Amino acid sequence: xxxxxxxxxxxxxxxxxxxxxxxxxxxxxxxxxxxxxxxxxxxxxxxxxxxxxxxxxxxxxxxxxxxxxxxxxxxxxxxxxxxxxxxxxxxxxxxxxxxxxxxxxxxxxxxxxxxxxxxxxxxxxxxxxxxxxxxxxxxxxxxxxxxxxxxxxxxxxxxxxxxxxxxxxxxxxxxxxxxxxxxxxxxxxxxxxxxxxxxxxxxxxxxxxxxxxxxxxxxxxxxxxxxxxxxxxxxxxxxxxxxxxxxxxxxxxxxxxxxxxxxxxxxxxxxxxxxxxxxxxxxxxxxxxxxxxxxxxxxxxxxxxxxxxxxxxxxxxxxxxxxxxxxxxxxxxxxxxxxxxxxxxxxx
Length: 348
Ligand SMILES: O=c1ccn([C@@H]2O[C@H](COP(=O)(O)OP(=O)(O)O[C@H]3O[C@H](CO)[C@@H](O)[C@H](O)[C@H]3O)[C@@H](O)[C@H]2O)c(=O)[nH]1
Fold this sequence. Notes:
Distance between the termini: 58 Å
CATH topology: Rossmann fold
Mean pLDDT: 94
CATH superfamily: NAD(P)-binding Rossmann-like Domain
Number of domains: 1
Number of helices: 13
Largest sheet: 9 strands, mixed
Strand content: 15-25%
Number of strands: 16
Bound molecules: uridine-5'-diphosphate-glucose
Shape: globular
Radius of gyration: 21 Å
CATH architecture: 3-Layer(aba) Sandwich
């Protein structure tokens, strides 16, 4: 393949960058970062005009442009990508339960919508596109993860099938973002405030933990290092749900922890996987990150017989039950780096 060279950090200065799902928490942190890097324009693309209005006021920066639309509708995506050098694709249906009950909605947004984003970006002359995925796309058991897995395949197929494209498309996967909207930590904090026991689904369940800032670092790393079709993950520690509950409780209360085990929810897994063993065996260690290059074997089937992979049986998945495990004190140290936790502690 004739790869376009990855962009340099300096290329951001004066660039136009579009963010799909740009009014979400990732979009806000990324937009702030891009403005600090001196971009000429940030095109925020999203469905929600009220959130766009809030963001417009809170940023109050004339380099921001807001585009209303839905990734399901390619025509609505085009204006946001016209003239854009780079695109970060964060628009998605991300909640496990809602996708479980309405899987066809996940197909429309996460698969068809991502395809629209990829094709429109390429047709608009975008140089680099990073698609955000999740650990739930590996060995997926729920509709959200399944649809994200197919988004990944769509991105990789674009790279494989368009070897002369001037656009580099890559994928990042990350685990649970601490304190993200609707996630377990704000739920625990609300329960604590209400004087209720913390509801534990399954105490031994493990999750990779990372901050929103780290998710931006991962996406930035992909942006600066990707070859077409690459997949990136950030090395991350994990904790059990029991540890997480005790860490939150210990930070915010002097009383003995009060927890109630409620059992696993629809579509949940005991442990998450960031890289399957098949990916891990091909992964390049890049310090804080792993890079998995595109499997760009073509339709020459004989290669599948003569160039097989024998190392795969000797390695394990990179999963939340075999990564660095945080105890209560280490989880609390991580929590103290989260702005919402800092605010919560300051209120006490
Ligand atoms: O009251 C609760 C709620 C959740 N959990 C557990 O806490 C962990 C984290 O749950 P949650 O914060 O809801 O995250 P996930 O279900 O793992 O999914 C989140 O993390 C994904 C990334 O892996 C995102 O893509 C999803 O949007 C986001 O909901 C899981 O083990 C849950 O079983 C509890 O113990 N008690």
